Amino acid sequence: MQKVLLLLIIFSLVELTKAQTKGQMQLGMEFGPDQSEIYGSPAPINKSYTGAYALGFTAQYDFNEIFSLKSGIYNEVKGFSQSYSYVSNPASQTPFVSYINYNGLDYITIPLLMKAGFGRKLHCFANAGPYLGWLVGAPASQEYTDSLIKRQTSTGNAANLYKAVDFGVAGGAGIEIQLKNRFILSLEARYNLGLVNIDNSGFYNIKNESTDLLFGVRYRL
Questions:
Q1: What is the C-alpha to C-alpha distance for residues 173 and 113, in angstroms, rounded to an integer?
Q2: In sequence order, what are the residues at sequence separation of 6 or more whose Cβ sits closer than 8 angstroms to the Cβ of residue 148?
Q3: Which residues fall within 8 angstroms of residue 104, CB to CB, at 6 or more apart?
Q4: What integer pLDDT is reported at residue 76 of this predicted model?
Q5: Which segments of the chain have a pLDDT < 70?
Q6: 2-220 classified as CATH 2.40.160.20
Q7: Distance of alpha carbon 107 from its chain centroid, rounded?
């Protein structure tokens, strides 16, 4: 399924770049913050990952004034954080030791979205479709209290704990504003739901979940 989708995305990108009809092809970029977590079983004790974002180059082909095909290549930083504590020494004045784990998941993501909208100068739209993501890094850090009650931090790379490929569906809605004849500004809220287990250890079944707030600018060729 993932190989078929990859071929479909590559074919669509090639066709987008070959489109020659004036005004139907748009190129641009999008960027914005990302609120990311994981879900699955056993139910993880997790919070959103601080510092997540999405940044990418986009291509859009307009079939008509309503329907379009949109894709692109994004650097999307997802992840999750976990906090927990346990009793280290019941006889001490500070029996609890607390930990906070920050787990970043750095992906190169390619979505393939069908888009529909209405309006001219103020264009309202919605889009949806699948995405593929390739893991390119997994920075991890841990904050904890040592035996001297001092807060410590350790860092590392946890890429071996996660699978190299992520697959899911994305859907979003937003508005666009036409500037003069060729430039378009956009604002979109997009939800991404992972459909495959990203854990590589065999102990968990966890999937990505994130929401992006994307600011964009495109140029109509």
A1: 12
A2: none
A3: 49, 51, 52, 77, 78, 79, 137, 138, 139, 140
A4: 95
A5: 1-23, 42-48, 50, 84-97, 144-152, 154
A6: yes
A7: 8
Render pLDDT for 30-48 as a digit per residue (tens, 0 to 9). 999 999 988 887 655 666 6
Query: 3-state DSSP call for residue 11?
Result: helix
* Structural domain spans, the chain: 2-220
**Spatial distance between the Cα atoms of 75 and 61, rounded to a whole number of angstroms:** 21
The DSSP code sequence of 143-206 is EEE-TTS-EEEEEEE-GGGB-SEEEEEEEEEEEEEEETTTEEEEEEEEEEEE-S--BSSSS-EE
Distance between CA atoms of residues 116 and 197, nearest Å: 31
Q: How is residue 168 written in tokens?
A: 């899911």
Residue 10, H or E segment? helix 2-18
Provide the token pair at 144.
């904890």
Residue 110 pairs in a beta bridge with: 132
Cα 92–94–98 angle (5° rounding)? 130
Phi, psi of 93 (to 5 degrees): -75, -20
AA identity, residue 53:
Y
Rounded Cα gap, residues 162 and 197, in angstroms: 9
